Amino acid sequence: MSLSVPLRLEGISKRFGHVQALKPLTLDVRGGEMLALLGPSGCGKTTTLRIIAGFETPDEGSVLIGEKDITELPPNKRSLGMVFQNYCLFPHLTVGENVAFGLKMRGIPAADRAKRVRAMLELMRLGNFEERTIHQLSGGQQQRVALARSLVTDPSLLLLDEPLGALDKNLRERMQFELREIQRRLGITSILVTHDQEEALTMSDRVAVMEAGAIIQIGAPTEVYERPHSQFVSEFLGTANIFHAVVLRRVQQDMWAVRLEHGKAEMLIACAANLASGGAVKIAVRPERLKMDAPAGGGMPAMVRDVVFRGSYYAYELSIADQASPIFVYTQARKAIPADGEVTIDWSPESAILLADQAAP
Amino acid sequence: MTSTRTDAGATTVHPRARRARFRLARPSWTWPALAYLSVFFLLPLITNLVRSVSTGEASWSNPFVYYVKLITDRYYLGVLLETLFVSIVTTILCLLVSYPISYFMVRKAGRWNVVIVFFLVAPLLTSIIMRTFGWTVLAARRGLFNTWLMETHLLARPLDALNGPVIVYVALVHVLAPFMILSISAVLQTVDVRLEESARLLGAGRVSTFLRVTLPLSLDGITNGCTLVFVLTNGSFLTMLLLGGGTIKTLALLIYQQFNLTQDIGFAAAMGNILLIMALVCLLLQARLVRRRNVKQ
Questions:
Q1: Which residues of B259-294 are buried (b: 16+ CB within 10 A; e: fewer)?
Q2: What is the pLDDT at residue B195?
Q3: So what's the ipTM on this one?
Q4: Which candidate, B195, B194, B182, B192, places its Cα nearest to that of B221?
Q5: Whole-angstrom distance, CA of residue B78 vs CA of residue A306
Q6: Best mutation site among A16, A49, A76, A309 for testing chain B: the one with the most B CBs within 10 Å?
Q7: What order of strands is seen across the sheet that includes strand A214-219?
Q8: pLDDT tens digits, one per residue of A235-261
Q9: Most buried residue, A266, B42, B90, B115, by CB count within 10 Å?
Q10: Separation CA B282–CA B68 (nearest Å)
Q11: Average pLDDT, stretch A11-36?
């Protein structure tokens, strides 16, 4: 079976009773890429995955793997691999029997089966675990068995449903790299469903951010993180400070001066498009992109409300003038500025993101 | 932000520390229950045992007459085997009827599950005599079934459904199926649907998913249910007495007759003990089967 086949979702939609779980959605997943479906619970990411897996039938639209329309195929005829959040290993079978299950269902002869199971367990560094029962394994090992079980049949597509959700933090970080490495090596087209933005950013080639049954932005992790189109995306992927402002004038090519709604400071933003002078804009700036300076410096004056040490950085909570929502700043500085200190904050024009959705300020 | 940080950790009490401080039950609290069981359960069992080897034909010089008679006499051996046969058939019928119902309850019923459980448990509140007589009303010569079938011209002559083995099995399954259904659904509830979905994605069709995943994982429930139904059928005589019309003779029915008609108390006691041994063997088997599977998991 050839790996690296593309997947295409063509206008699939799904309604549960009165709830439109999925608006007509079209998505192309390139062969061999890992695509993350990221969003809060109820955004439709799980429904999308279940439609691809064949557990749900879309109300309209079709699912294509390569050239083949699989919309009407039952799950067992789709040749997919899937890793569930809590692994879903068969508790009544040994590790070896779990991995062999898919091969057995495909009618692979026993000798061949044993060879392939052995090779796959070897690949997952589970060489001596074949005879073990599932409850004798640690979480990370179970995770690898689940992966082995789904990959041993050479599926055309790998589905990962919050695959690392049940692991503790350290192990999760290690498994993120491990999983990514195996996926790259096999070149298998994969879909990762997660609500964990960090997982989506570290593991995938492209991230599709979903909200209310629709994909609202899709792109490379850096692109989605650095250039979110909307406040929702900017806030869902990490922390973002949102500023409302009015456009003043063009300062130079691709550079505009704006006046902030709160604090009235004049700031610069980079923007290639033509902005209407006097128009309201919404700007997002990442906490690590905000610069904090002594009170005399340029930028807008702010007051330190609180400061928290987070290991690799300090997180400040600031307030500016009459703005109700706090401003967050992360700095790598060694020494903390105490609470109630006065500072000024500034940003470089490139780190200010002009958001496309212009909600009323 | 400040307030949430100070709150954390201040009010948590170590769970084990709390458990040590409030110890609700003490071992001595079991004494009343033990005393009650000794007087009303253990003592009768012992007297029954003594009676079976010392009353009537049995005496201390020849204590096991009744037991020997039960095992060697053609008639009594036949009854013993028929008892086993009836119990096995009832158990199998119950299993066949109950498994689909349990599966439906757990996988498909959703919030209606509670309603179904209510309908399963509610009949247990009426006495078994009432439920058995209900079948008499339905199946009698001029009962509901016959009347309906005659009126719709499906039958020319009324069927004599009563006083036969079929109606006994129907009534037994009716009375005992709830035990099987509740046992199986309790275990089936613990089987994650996603295990079945995993199997499907790995290429298993509906039937092999059931045979290779769902069924093996619900075996504990089946074992529990079968043991319950088997033991309960072994001990039931009212259904056979009221509906069987003498066509089904089981040990429990014989005990009833020994007590009420022939008044051969010693013989009845011996039969009771045989039934008790059968029940104990079943429970031992069940404990072994269930425990061994748990070890394997």
A1: beeeebebbbbbbbbbbeebbeebeeebeebbeeee
A2: 93
A3: 0.79
A4: B182
A5: 88
A6: A76
A7: A80-83, A157-161, A190-194, A34-38, A206-211, A214-219
A8: 888 888 888 888 888 888 888 888 888
A9: B90
A10: 22
A11: 91
Q: Which structure tokens are listed for B139?
A: 């199946």
List alpha helices for A187-258, DSSP H.
197-203, 221-226, 231-236
Contact: A76, B213; criterion CB under 8 Å: no
Task: Domains for chain A: give ranges and CATH numbers.
Answer: 7-236 (3.40.50.300), 239-286+349-361 (2.40.50), 301-345 (2.40.50)
Q: Which residues of B touch A309 (CB under 8 A)?
A: none
Residues from chain B that touch A135, judged by Cβ atoms under 8 A, are 297
Please give the mean pLDDT across all residues of chain A: 86
Tens of pLDDT, residue by residue over A301-334, are 888 888 888 888 888 888 887 777 888 888 887 7
Model confidence, pTM: 0.77
Structure token pair of residue B163: 């006083």
Which whole number is the average pLDDT over A63-90?
90
Better-predicted residue by pLDDT, A359 or B31: B31
- What is the rounded distance in angstroms from the CA atom of residue B60 to the CA atom of residue B79? 27
Q: Which of A230, A190, A188 is nearest to A209 (CA)?
A: A230
The C-alpha atoms of residue A317 and residue A304 are separated, in whole angstroms, by 6
